[in-house]
Design a protein that fits this description.
The chain is an alpha+beta fold. Helices cover 50% and strands 13% of the residues. InterPro entries: GAF, GAF-like_dom_sf, HD/PDEase_dom, HD_domain, HD_GYP_dom.
Length: 567
Amino acid sequence: MRNLLRKAAELAGGRCSLAISFEGEVAIVEGPAPAAAFGEDEPGVVGVPIRFDELHSGRLFMLMDEPEDRENHTKILNFISYSIQELVDMEYARRSIAEEALAKYRELALFHRSVPNINTSLHMRDVVNALIDECRLENYPGELGMIFLLEPSRKIFRLAVQFGFPFGTYLQPMVDSVLFHEVVASGRGEIVNDLEKEVRWDNELPGLGSMILIPINSPNRCEGVLILASRNTGVFEAAHRRSLSTLASVAGISVSNAFNFEGIQKLMNAILQALAEAIDSRDPYTAGHSERVAHLAVAFGHTLNEAGGYRGRVFSDDELREIYYAGILHDVGKIGIKEDVLTKRTRLPERRMDVVRARFQLLGQFDGFDWGHAFEQLCGVNKAMVPDETALEFVRELGGRVMRRNGTTLRYLYDDELENLLLSYGNLTRDERREIQRHPAESERILQHIPLQDSYANLLTIIRQHHERMDGSGYPDGLKGEEILAQSRLMAIVDIYDAVTQERHYKPAFTRSEAMKILRQEVDEGKLDSDLTDFFLNNIESIEMLSEQVKVTKGTHLSALGNLSSL
């Protein structure tokens, strides 16, 4: 503008001075006259208005050396003012375009940066925390913040996360305000820079001066509301609303996806839980085993994480959840095991012992055989977990005894009965034990048709390997050492621990100290991972306590274990 004034003064032949004022103050002077000479009431001074932008204005002044030539000077003044106004308008337009382009660039940069940060997880806690972190990263005004999310089933907004408020502050009254409801209903953000004058605000949260409310919208509904607030007034601008709306639009899709994911997780958890209960219900003595193993395994894994991990490796939330589901489903293959094998409580079932009793009684009438005493001893062997050698020798003698009458040979015990009664340990024959040992591979076969997420890539392997042993004596594949996943080794430990500490039809429940001795013996025999077992035994009390917390959180909220104080 100074150059323009200089050219104008030359055009006037040096017979006038020119000046431009801004908001009442003379800012530029061209010509011999001082700035003080350009008052509105000064003789020989004429002025016309100039608009710099929507808020600021000024005037163009001319001080005529020859007042009698006023007409020509006025024409020059009007031409100069037109030129200056055009220059100002073009500059204003250029700056507006530049500011708009810069704002769009910042919005696009914010969008590109926030998308990977907010979309990195399908867990709601991670999504809302990432959104809050983005707000802090952008350094928005407002020392307080809240995010409320809609509970779809109840149509109620609940506080998901907050910052800046004193611990224990009850923020739920926010959702009762007319202002909150209107933002949700309209789907548009609002800035209120003086809450005291806002008719839609009834001081639901005392002490706030200003607030910006941004709906978190998905294509289907308002998923929640992001709120930044300050105890001061007048701190928020339209630019803040634009950029926060960009963040909220990114978060809206992520929140919707997280809601859907958690819904699927709950459904999956319910289905798998029902499946596990169906398995456990086949034998009342094993009821709840799968669930307890899942809880103990997750608690074990989390406690390992707190101590720095297993050989430096820390299990992620997804891996902990994978361990949880592996625990729930590790015995699902028992669905394919025959009922009389799965629930076998004695070496011979009761109905077969009734047949043996009737046979003994019949033979005793002709053979001078003390069948009552013999049958009593046989019943003792039938119920024993580890019968003594004297009792087994008695069974062998009975097996070799026959009665011949009228050309017919009658045996006291038949081969299949002897096979069961002469077992040195337990009540399962070799074929029955093989059938039981099929269940890990059968579990994998049953579950392989379920479309599992990529984050559960090891689930079937953990299930298949949970009966493998470090020395290769396990089943179904006889794997050794590092061939067995760490998660599978962990699962093996808690599976044994729960099995021996619960009552079974063939034994009473062992105490914790007795169970610990059994696990140490398994380590001494080279069957269990020594490092994992030692850690489990050294932390057994805290692991059992934490397993009770896992029981409350279930598989859909295991990320809550990341902060035990929140449980």
